[in-house]
Amino acid sequence: MADHSLDTSRIDASRLRGRLEDLAHGLAIPQWDLGAACSTDTSVQVDRGEAKQLKGAQRSSITVRVWNGDGLVGITSTSDLSDGGLARALASAKEASAFGNPDDKPAFSPLSTAPLAPLEQPLCPPQGILTLLGTLKEAERELLGRHAAITTVPYNGLAERSSERIYLNSAGASRHQKLTTASVYLYARAEETGRKPRSSGAVRLAYGADSLDVAGCIDEAAERTIRHLDYAPIETGYYTCCFSPEAFLDLIGAFSSLFNARAVLDGVSLSTRESLGQPLAVPFFQLHDNGLHPGNVGASAFDGEGTPTRRLALVENGLLANFLHSEATARAFGVAPTGHAGLGAKVSVGPDWFEVSGTGGQADLDRHSADGIVWIDSLSALHAGVKASQGSFSLPFDGWLVKGGEARSIEAATVAGDIRSLLNGIIGFEGAAKITPDGLSPYVWVEGLSITGDS
Amino acid sequence: MLSSPSAVLAVEPFDQLWQVRLESLLAAGRAAGADLVEVFLERTDAVGVLAEQDRITSVSPGLGRGAGLRVFLGERDGFVSTNDLSDPGLLTALDQALGMLGLERSAQVHSDFEGLPALRDFGRLKADWLGRCPALGEATDRLLEGTAQLGRHGRHLQVRRGSYSRDWQEVLVAASDGTFARDIRLHQSVGLNVLAADGEHRASLGRRYGTSGRPDDLREWDAEAAARDLCASTGTMLYADYVEAGQWPVVLANRFGGVIFHEACGHLLETTQVERGTTPFAEQVGEVIAHPAVTAIDEGLSDGAFGSLSMDDEGMEPQRTVLIENGVLQRFLSDRAGERRTGHARTGSGRRQSHAFAAASRMRNTYIAAGPHTPEQLMASVDRGLYCKTMGGGSVGPTGQFNFSVEEGYLIENGQLTKPVKGATLIGEAKDVMPRISMCANDLELAAGYCGSVSGSIYVTVGQPHIKVDSITVGGR
User: Which end of chain B is more exposed for a tag (fewer CB within 10 A), N or C?
Assistant: First the structure.
């Protein structure tokens, strides 16, 4: 018997629904939903003027979730989209449903058929691997030419992707999104005689490879790398720190369990149900999650349960305003889902894209003319150095010590503290908010952070 | 695969029957002008289970299949992965990989490729592994036993979690150099995590155990001993003060303490780092790069260890590779691409997370060898310093700067352990720290871990005896 496969380069939602309905009927599954995705990726890397690795990928996957007669949920993921593969996945999910959690029965999101917010996401034609290769070779050549000390660009890549995702459920919900994205990253390594090597870089995203700001990526990578060439150790102590937008957003992301209703219900968040409306940060601090922001390249129009993406206030005037929700956590809190769910037997919850803003604090902050402050450019090892459930962090960073308006790169150091103390130690914001891959933020100044240096 | 281990076994296995299809692909690639063509086929059957407090809260099975095709031309290569294992799907992938190198498949196949030899089947005696693994009901019972034991032995526990993962993988590797090998891999891991809270004091700790090729692993897991050990550490760390930052001598415990070598040096001895120009040791084979007390090994042979393999993901049997002997750099870990680009001979270290990644030179079971001292002698040699009993994760950057976090630490004062401390991060540079590992104890042990790098997340083992580092930067408050 022929085992028909879906075309893995695209998803036919109507055909997929028909097959799931048939298979579910045959297995006596009364209720189901699924998330499906397929993508085509092309990427290149170069090494000193030569192609290093050229990659392509066609990926497809489906996650099916089924409810059994007792209302318990089971799930299975598969990359085998043949008829047999789907049947096996559905049977596996049904079997797993016997172990569903009776205390936490997910349901369809009540918003899975609600209108979606419009997203301006142009679909860009692929440039092709040889064009990508030529662009990246040229970018590498130009970056290497910016300074004699820049000898290699060991981490580099230019990629383009075309993808589709779908959410379907047995109650008739049908979501579909097509997307194209492209990215370029350049991380240079520079070394001067008798000195330690230094490294830094930059990333850019766009909807197509032809619209990537490659020149801006080169400029930023060169500037950051060169600025780290002249380095010195820093004395261990407590410093006022100025976080770059990227570094501050990384830190907020690492502690996003503060705003995560799933983490609150599981007891692993520093927040509790009673924290809503309570002070979390200085009164002039605002934080939103906004996957719909035009700067969020590759935004999802809906979450894993089909709930529309939306802008949500998390911290308003320093007070904790809302939590991120899935269907199940929203039901537990008596609110509407917020569009931040995954798809699972136990549904995960996560942020989309943060917006940090300030409406006060110390004015006229300028890291370029400051004295005795640490300018934190980027944080490392967040997976290891953040204890989200405890609120503590101890993280290596790249940055500069600014003395009398002169910035000198710090040889090696860590910054440590408590996230709640940090949010209450913000003294102000510098400059206009900058769009980064993870969100939007100005430079954020915080006083009294512990810096450990290598001297 | 659930209570009846049948889902993945019901589909066509990767065996000798694939030979003709693979030979056709390899011949077509060679005829197009490729120096070497490699096909990696994969089927997977995995399940993850989570227990929280006294409930099973998540059961997540996953089934997968796919292929990765790699074409070399000189030092360059093109790699394409796909979930489509049909003949047209594989040919399309081959065409794309060839096209990346400016090559094109011709209608007439003429190449010097002489076909594949008989299959080397490392999986032949492993066919029953999946069926012998605990059924889902048994796995959930064991996890609930673990969380119950945590409740029995712990105090102030706000969260008790147990997790289990079982990852079964069948692979078939064929290459135009005559490689034709099949294997079955089985990795199982079980872990316990707790969050303790008492007023403003909070501590979150975990323990994870993992093995390869042992279907009965979960059955043999001592849940009570694991829970008791974790609860004892948590009870201590709940009231620990933050560590004082500075430059300290440190003694790192055995087992997962080996993450320091993994991060500080191991990654820098992979040929991927030589290719990138990001290792300071590239030209130092035969030279002293570490203290004479240090001998370091990477191998894929230890029975049941997380990083052990019957063959690597390029079809080569693993070796015992001495990386550093008495402080002198001996050799690098190398894969197929590394050998072509750097000249370092392959070591059976070509590894990848899945078919979606091209193999790269990666560590397997990596450890510092045992030395002559007792752990007590190491402690006694420190007037004031830090004892790192358990480690969290770490990483290494493009200039050789490494870092890792300390999960459970104690002050050493006058050669004795005194009070617990938390919040420590150790940072440094490989070239600086390796000469400072001045004492190795006689209690080598290994620990299972996961390593994320260029070819994805893979199973590894880290290990060491207790070691002393004369001075390292300890980040804290």
Answer: C
